[in-house]
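> forwarded from #structure-qc
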């Protein structure tokens, strides 16, 4: 299918255009033989959609009357909302978290360790506190650093033997 158009492409300022005066105009019969039809550009729709009457009316109105796009309307079915169904599916039990992203503070003195002591750790700390004074926060920092260091690097037999040969007090001082 082809649509009628007066110009297939935009004007070029570098090319001269012919100018006709009223007496020089060719007869209407001569103009009819001039084929100005331009192949129709794809609309971006499927073939079945192009045959729908309301779309054809909108496309032809745009071509014939050169209407503005705001005045052309393609009917769209209205969406319905079922509030009861929504409330039944999504209960309002959401609690806003205190923070979305956890950022470690720049001051390392105030940094809290990721490790938390449990009851077994408390008994071990009580036994160690008979020989030396270790605060619970210091113990958590020490175990946290030990866990992070052992997960990031493999402990070789030489390192393990050094850790086991040294007394525990020097081991504690190593992490503090």
């Amino acid at each position: 299918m082809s649509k009628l158009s007066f110009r297939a492409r935009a004007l070029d300022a570098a090319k001269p255009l012919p100018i006709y005066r009223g007496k020089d105009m060719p007869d209407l019969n001569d103009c009819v033989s001039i084929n100005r039809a331009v192949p129709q550009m794809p609309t971006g729709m499927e073939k079945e959609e192009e045959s729908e009457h309301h779309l054809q009316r909108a496309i032809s109105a745009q071509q014939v009357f050169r209407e503005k796009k705001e005045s052309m309307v393609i009917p769209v079915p209205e969406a319905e909302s079922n509030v009861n169904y929504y409330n039944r599916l999504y209960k309002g039990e959401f609690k806003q978290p205190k923070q979305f992203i956890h950022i470690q503070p720049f001051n390392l003195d105030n940094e809290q360790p990721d490790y938390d002591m449990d009851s077994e750790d408390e008994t071990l700390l009580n036994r160690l506190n008979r020989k030396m004074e270790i605060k619970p926060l210091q113990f958590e920092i020490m175990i946290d650093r030990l866990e992070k260091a052992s997960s990031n690097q493999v402990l070789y037999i030489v390192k393990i033997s050094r850790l086991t040969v040294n007394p525990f007090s020097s081991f504690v001082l190593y992490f503090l």
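QC bot note: The chain has a mean pLDDT of 73. The longest strand covers residues 2-4.
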